[in-house]
Amino acid sequence: MKTIGPMIGIVGGGVVGLCCAIALLGRGYDVSVFERDTGYNAASWGNAGHIAVEQVEPLASPAALRSVPKRLFSAGGALGLPPSMASRWLPFAARLVAASTPDKFAVGTAALTPLLAGSMPAWRDLVGALGAPDLLREDGHIVVWDSAASARTGRQRWSQTPIGTARIADAEPELLHRLGFLADPVGGAIRFTGSGQIADLRALATTLEGTVEARGGRIVREAARLAEDSGRVVIAGHDVDQVLITAGVRSRGLLEPLGYRVPMIAERGYHIRAQADGWPADLPPVVFEDRSMIVTRYADCVQAASFVELGDPDGPPDPRKWDRLEHHVRSLGLPIEGPFTRWMGARPTLPDYLPAIGRSTRHANLAYAFGHQHLGLTLAPVTATLVVAMLAGEPPAVPLAPFDLERFGRKGPHA
Ligand SMILES: Cc1cc2nc3c(=O)[nH]c(=O)nc-3n(C[C@H](O)[C@H](O)[C@H](O)COP(=O)(O)OP(=O)(O)OC[C@H]3O[C@@H](n4cnc5c(N)ncnc54)[C@H](O)[C@@H]3O)c2cc1C
């Protein structure tokens, strides 16, 4: 007879929650995933699909702070600080500045490096176990610059930047040939190897959900509400032993009423998608670095994504962002024909650009895995292995101390 392990309620069925669900089912847990959205609108299903093993440096850095003026949307850049949302981003900006000292940046890089080193092996294991190896493409990505001058600066910067397990390959003539469809010759291009992409985000979503159900888990299509009961956290109306919060940007709203300090911001990004007819099927993601835009081919669509807009996850989108993406597509002469669908979604970002992965010391049955900022797709399977080890009391493959939520202190009556 199959032994049924502890009942765990996972709040949030994005990529992090679903990867955790599959890993926990593999350890005999009785798993229910609570997911309130039926439309696949979360960041998990609208992102750029890039397995970004190279991004070992947190964006909370002295260099990122120095570059703010030229990254502003008003200066043609990708950073949006909407005045109407200043009450959200001002406190976050203050914490970001405090987290961006050289020392803290070094600590953050040391924490992210082993996590990212484990990310591609964890994806490989996962798609193998799902019987869906084609979901993962391990053919790197391409970085392109508009002008020779920016290519020189960009190459030099990348050559001096730690890139974890990725490598930069010198394949310029071959690359330039593959990008021959562009209106103007590019200023330069480099190819990364060791990185990759998810071949199709919708197929990923349905494969992960289907696997959860096929292995005996449940996807509960409702908004979970949390409450406290005798020092434990409960999901209203449901009987679970343990609760795992994987609610992305919504994790803050779930945990703050329970006394946790979660200084998370919605880092809103935008994409446009169109039929993929003209875009080469075998081209890995292309980053147009001067335009802060990444173009990714999925199964039957091609997507251009950009922007980091700090604010309210539920505030109205800014259509100028989609207009600018369409402008880039046209002015670069990309073989992408409208009509375009338009999407906005929120990266869950903490001020030090490290995720929160850990167990509560206050509520014995509460664990969490959220705040994966620009790297949630990349880090979901490796996060799941860490969550499983943590709940089983086994030593995690990567030290979890830097990801403890209590690094932000406590709030409210529990402080
Ligand atoms: C434009 C853009 C491009 C990106 N590109 C990349 C990339 O190339 N590579 C990469 O690694 N990352 C990328 N990211 C970041 C990545 O998408 C996120 O880090 C990741 O999706 C976070 O996953 P998650 O599962 O934690 O959260 P989410 O995707 O936000 O999922 C959380 C889920 O929880 C559900 N939920 C919330 N509250 C409740 C509740 N109370 N009850 C039930 N359900 C609830 C939500 O409906 C949602 O489905 C990008 C993000 C954006 C916006």
Layout of helices and strands, plus pairs?
Elements: E1 7-11, H1 15-26, E2 30-34, E3 50-51, H2 62-66, H3 68-71, E4 79-80, H4 86-99, H5 102-117, H6 119-130, E5 136-137, E6 141-145, H7 148-159, E7 167-169, H8 172-178, E8 188-193, E9 196-198, H9 201-214, E10 218-220, E11 226-229, E12 232-235, E13 242-245, H10 251-255, E14 265-275, E15 286-288, E16 293-297, E17 301-311, H11 319-332, E18 341-349, E19 356-359, E20 366-370, H12 376-392
Parallel strand pairs: 1-2, 1-13, 2-10, 4-17, 6-15, 13-20
Antiparallel strand pairs: 3-9, 5-9, 6-8, 7-8, 11-12, 14-17, 14-18, 15-16, 16-17, 19-20
Helix pairs in contact: 1-9, 1-12, 6-12
Tell me about this structure.
By secondary structure, the protein is an alpha/beta fold. The protein has helices spanning 15-26, 62-66, 68-71, 86-99, 102-117, 119-130, 148-159, 172-178, 201-214, 251-255, 319-332, 376-392; strands at 7-11, 30-34, 50-51, 79-80, 136-137, 141-145, 167-169, 188-193, 196-198, 218-220, 226-229, 232-235, 242-245, 265-275, 286-288, 293-297, 301-311, 341-349, 356-359, 366-370. The strands form four sheets. Strands 4, 6, 7, 8, 14, 15, 16, 17 and 18 form a nine-stranded mixed β-sheet that branches. A six-stranded mixed β-sheet has the order 10-2-1-13-20-19, with helices on one face. Strand 11 and strand 12 form a beta hairpin. The longest helix has 17 residues, at 376-392. Bound molecules: flavin-adenine dinucleotide. Flavin-adenine dinucleotide (FAD) binds at residues 11-17, 34-37, 42-44, 47-50, 52, 223-224, 246-250, 254, 269, 271, 305, 345, 347-348, 370, 372-378. Flavin-adenine dinucleotide binds next to helix 1, strand 14, strand 18 and helix 12.
